[in-house]
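seq:
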Amino acid sequence: MKKVAVLQSNYIPWKGYFDIIHDVDLFIFYDDLQYTKNDWRNRNKILVNGRLQWLTIPVGTNEHRQILDVTMPDKSWQKKHWQTLCMAYGRASCFKKYEDFFFHVYMEKEWEYLYELNRYLIMTISHEFLGIKTEFADSRDYPTHGAKHEKLLSLVQAAGADVYISGPAAKDYIIAEDYEEAGIAIGWKDYSGYPAYPQMSETFAHQVSVLDLLFNTGEDAPCYIWGWRR
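struct:
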């Protein structure tokens, strides 16, 4: 039984994003869609001195482009984000374990397209740091038709899914009956119940980048994403 998930690439996403990746056999990046401003594509939250703070990549104000077309012409963000991460997590118990990798990402590589950066981070964190075996693919690798709901369903069908795993927000636009008619079961992801972990804040915050979890728990990170359910 083949399980598939389809999501846009986000910047250093929260643990729930990786929970969905872990749930499926095939995870499809769906970036040939309209770019949405003030969303998770180019920003996420971290804790700095115990307070939530946005890390945002400047990508311009053009709203008439696909995610695939979003560039990052202002390169100064890379050094700023690295310095902020060092300030926020330099004393975290597992920061040193990942320091070389993220230094390379922020200080040694140059990125032109946002989706390329996001996918590189997501795939590396999944495979190398969280031990996830899921296969990754690009939505452009599959034939699709229609728009919105119809296009997504045709993508899931083309990928050969028996089960489609989706976040709960998609209930607003997914027509479950169409999936049932196509012989595809839908599994709605439940993000509740995640256990707290040692965090550099007096008040625990779940809605932060997975980097917060990695830097604070290291190799134990999977236990706080899906391992606790066993």
